[in-house]
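FIELD: query
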Amino acid sequence: MTLLNRIVGLYLVAVVVAFGQPGIAQEPSADSSKTDAQTQIDGNMSSEEILALLDSIDPYLPNENVSGEIDIFGSTSMDVLAHGWATEFKKFHSDSTVVISAEGSETVIDRMTKNQSSIGMLSRPVSNEDLAKLKTAGLKHPVAIQVAREPLGVFVNKSNPLEVINYEQLVSLFCAEDPAAQVNWTAVGIGGELAEKPIHIIGRDDQSGTRHFIETYLFHLNKMRPAKSELSSNAEVIQAVAKDTQAIAISDYKFNNKSVRRLKLREKSVVIEGNEHEILLGHYPITRPLTLVFDLEAKGNQAKANREFVRYTLSQSGQANTILAGFFPFDPPTLRGELSKLEIQKDQK
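FIELD: result
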């Protein structure tokens, strides 16, 4: 468990959640935090910095008590995060029930045209075309709220000697004018017995927001080489890389094990390690937003519950859940900007 997870776990234990009351962070004792607060290892954040970050985020103050069922579906990457949010949200709204189904980001837009009173989870940006499709289907004011961010890592088998890769090399491995053309590991300077062996791309299936993000936003719709395997979760992707010495994959940063290596990234002459500081400061180049989509101007109790749930995700407690799930929070100004999108309905009343 990383320092980030340990400290947020302690932080949530120290949050007082009374019946219908907002959480109030308590100061950790000097004895419990002194060592971590004075130490930064491998570019990761000290406990002092993490607690300062969380304290800078606005606490959750419910606008109103809500009840009933909140239906959330979509991204498999966000499944654990959604369950964490649901557990904590219920402490504020005990009569609410959050129902979560993770079937993939690319199921969301079509499903929301049929189930318009729900919340969609997408592990990618939401385009204007996505929102226009929802509006055409009858949603009054579909809105996309970015609630967290996630770095993606480039992974190879542990036996692969490659340690650093730049964007041009990534493109040469994953993209080609002739997708059927074979590329070997020598293309990125690998020698030895691996040099003349073909790369094996391990990817996600076509319902995946990870795949959509990689194809659309990382490789800008260039023709992609076919994957050797297309899997339904990022955990399965990493397991496949661990078993295949010729494999390479782009997957969730947090899915790592002793049988794979997450490559460092090179931008010009700068090598980016991918530590917590670099990610939180926006210096890590392969980072995507995690997004919730719903109808801001829908009416009724379920619509009120949806709005209140999304408000919670942007709060201090919601962002602490984000870190515990292995993702990264946005900075407070960005969170307040996303929160302001939810006030449109209030202003128009």
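FIELD: remark
The longest strand covers residues 142-157.
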